[in-house]
Amino acid sequence: MRIVCIGGGPAGLYLGLLMKRRHPEHVITVVERNKPYDTFGWGVVFSDAMMSAMRLADPESAAEIEDAFNHWDDIELVFKGTRQRTTGHGFIGIGRKHLLNILQRRCEALGVELVFEREVESDLEFPDADLIVACDGVNSRIRARYAEQFQPDMVIRPNRFIWLGTKKAFDAFTFDFQRTEHGWFQAHIYKFDAETSTFIVETTEAAYQAHGLDKLDQQSSIEFCEKIFAETLDGAKLLTNARHLRGSAWLNFSRLICGKWSVFNGKSHVVLMGDAAHTAHFAIGSGTKLALDDAIELANQFDRHGHGRDGIETVLDAYEEVRRVDVARIQNAARNAMEWFEVVGRRYADTLEPPQFFYSMLTRSQRISHENLRLRDRTWLEGFERWFATRSGIAVKDGERVPPPMLTPHRVRGLTLANRIMVSPMAMYSAQDGLIDDFHVAHLGARAMGGAGLVFAEMTCVSPDARITPGCLGLWNDAQAAQWRRLVELVHGVGHAKVGIQLGHAGRKGATRVPWEGIDQPLESGDWPLISASALPYLPHSQLPRAMDRGDMDRVRDDFVAATHRAAAAGVEWLELHCAHGYLLSSFLSPLTNRRTDEYGGSHENRARFPLEVFEAMRAVWPSDRPMSVRLSCHDWTDGGNIPADAAVFAAMFKEAGADLIDCSSGQVWKDERPIYGRLFQTPFADLIRNEVGIETIAVGAISEADHANSILAAGRADLCAIARPHLADPAWTLHEAARIGITKVEWPKQYLSAKGQYETNLARAAASAGQ
To answer: Cα–Cα distance between 357 and 363 in angstroms, integer?
Structure first.
């Protein structure tokens, strides 16, 4: 084949040498706009896994690259007058110019033609090519020519950064955060040869503008950065190799995703690689890795399907299918890290203490978890756990295992929870006339013995017409209140768990069948009239609700207050108001379901007016020493609906009204929603509200392991973790997860103590067997 790589960066050079090495008959040309053995940029970072892949792909170049690498294990943080360090992270760095020079020499040795100082405007300049590889960077001219086919999605991110270097060798991957009068600046610093380090400075657009950096030239910008980071630089100067850029050389990162990676131009197949196809933020240092992995996979697919012209389309389809999955994974982690740095000032640097800030930074991509940190640096993590436990009021003796964050106590008002795990409200749809029966006693009693600090029953309805289904629990009469008192006494009698109640009203989502008879489907008989913020049915064939008038509001508010009185008298210790998932109060908050033109519709203040009225009336009669939380849908996952920024506005309003925590859920407001699921997918909402609004939060959604909960709590992303489905599968989830991570000083029900030792022993045997 005749192969032309447009762009002489890592992707083009590495593909050229791999294809020539594996099939010398190929005629391969790499075209580069720069001069021979000249390039821009400072250092690049690899992982040990990347080097393993390169050793398999081309041992010769891998050996030379490894000889040039600088390896370090430590990460150091400079923050608020402290220096903290952790080890075991395993980075390797090399100068970008040195890397490309090694690959250029290897290409020449194998017979790849290198063409320098040529600007390529179009792929049509190579009509005899069978395959044209467009690896001409994020501003690819080739991709732009076929934009309709490649479907590029380019998002310019808000932060500004400048890529510099310094002749000071740092012995750790160093992060330096400095506060100025206009905001925070952070430096990402790492050594890539014996005497030189990359020094990337990043800040927000607001700080960039406020300091007038947009009006400075490069030298003035460098001097500005030298002044801010003077202590870390310790007399060393900052350097630039981007004098070709006009102005101050501060850039915005461009996040790129393409819908398709290859086209046929009528004569040649054209495929994207590297930054022309996708970008990953420098916060996790994976841009070069992605480019090299692209080259390796494309060469591998030619090996699998044959190196002939006829199979090119099959090869390119297979290449894209495989790479798209890994690229999405890396981009997701890079996005998490990128977004962390974009909000780091107002969300973390201003609010978190140095130890927790460091933990948050280390786990910013969500690829590194609590137990993974233990594997990397047990000493550092156990020191952090001791700090966290001390803040929670636990005195741990020297030599004792420190409890992880999820097993530390948490106090809200006059209530102290034994740990930070709660059994989330989960509808069972098994009540008769709203009454707790033997099923609920068995169900909730089992979970009360399972180790969680707080146990919630399902959403409990404040009136008969507030129910979702005929099987919903209620608290509108004294008989129901008596059963609640029985439940409270049962839970208190079997362990340390406290009892929570979530009060709600179904609104437009009421009068439906129990889920196993048709989820969200309207009752065929025995239904009741529905009310909502506006007259909008949930499903097209659902019952049409009536838009509430002032009389309806008065009645509903009073129903909530009456239920609150009953809950308090029954001894319930925690009260949550349900303002999520499209139920009645949620229907006021979301613009999708609130189409009102009166004082209860339109602005945030108007849409929150009635939910706040209900909350304030409940808070007024709920005992002042008992906590009260609010569950919000923090994302409607539908165009035109609420997004996390809206949820933060509502959270601030409920905080002002006396809420102690926000329970951060999402969705179920609009039937045509398109949520983006994934591990811990709702935790970012809790993070935002906790650290920007300044109110404690509960994280919920796809939290299924102790590792998840500990990572969330340790990083300060939430204060409690609500575990739902895992508690359905395992009533003793908290006890079992504690045992699984080696925590044996956890209280089990005395009736079950004979099983505790055996359970822990079996886990230890299984772990030992797996390690053999």
So the answer is: 10
pLDDT of residue 244: 57
Q: Which two tokens stand for residue 55?
A: 């050793």
Question: Measured between alpha carbons, how far is 22 from 19 in angstroms, rounded to an integer?
Answer: 5
Which of 290, 352, 371 has the alpha carbon at shortest distance from 325? 290
pLDDT tens-digit readout, 447-456: 999 999 999 9
Beta-carbon neighbour count of residue 606 at 10 Å? 16
DSSP-derived secondary structure letter, 548: P
- As a whole number of angstroms, the distance between CA 525 and CA 633 comes to 31
| CB distance 89 to 360 below 8 Å | no
Name every residue whose Cβ is closer than 8 Å to that of residue 772 and which is 6 or more positions away in sequence: none
Residue type, 33: R
544-589 residue pLDDT tens: 999 999 999 999 999 999 999 999 999 999 999 999 999 999 999 9
pLDDT above 70: residue 736:
yes
Quick one: average pLDDT of 260-271? 96
The pairing of beta strand 498-504 with beta strand 574-579:
parallel
Find out whether 30 and 116 touch, Cβ atoms under 8 Å: no
First-last CA distance in the chain: 48
Phi-psi region of 159 (alpha: psi -120 to 50; beta: other; left: phi over 0): beta
How far is Cα 445 from Cα 94, in angstroms, rounded to an integer? 59
Which among 351, 541, 369, 452 is positioned nearest to 747, based on CA atoms? Answer: 452
- The residues carrying an active-site annotation are 583
Q: At which residue do the structure tokens 């979530």 appear?
A: 502
- Residue type present at position 761: T
**754: how many CB neighbours lie within 10 A of its CB?**
9
Read off the pTM: 0.92
Alpha carbon distance 604, 584 (integer Å): 16
Q: Cα separation of 362 and 368, whole Å?
A: 7
pLDDT confidence of residue 40: 58
Q: Residues near 289 by Cβ (< 8 Å), separated by ≥ 6?
A: 46, 47, 50, 330
| Rounded-to-integer distance, Cα 330 and Cα 682, Å | 20
Find out whether 169 and 196 touch, Cβ atoms under 8 Å.
Answer: yes
Burial of 426 (0-12, 13-18, 19+ CB in 10 A): middle
**Do the beta carbons of residue 252 and residue 160 sit within 8 Å?**
yes
Cβ contact 335:676 at 8 Å = no
The Cα–Cα gap between 368 and 208 comes to 31
Instruction: Give residue 286's pLDDT.
Output: 76
Mean pLDDT across the stretch 448-469?
A: 98
Residue 325 C-beta-side C-alpha neighbours within 13 Å: 5
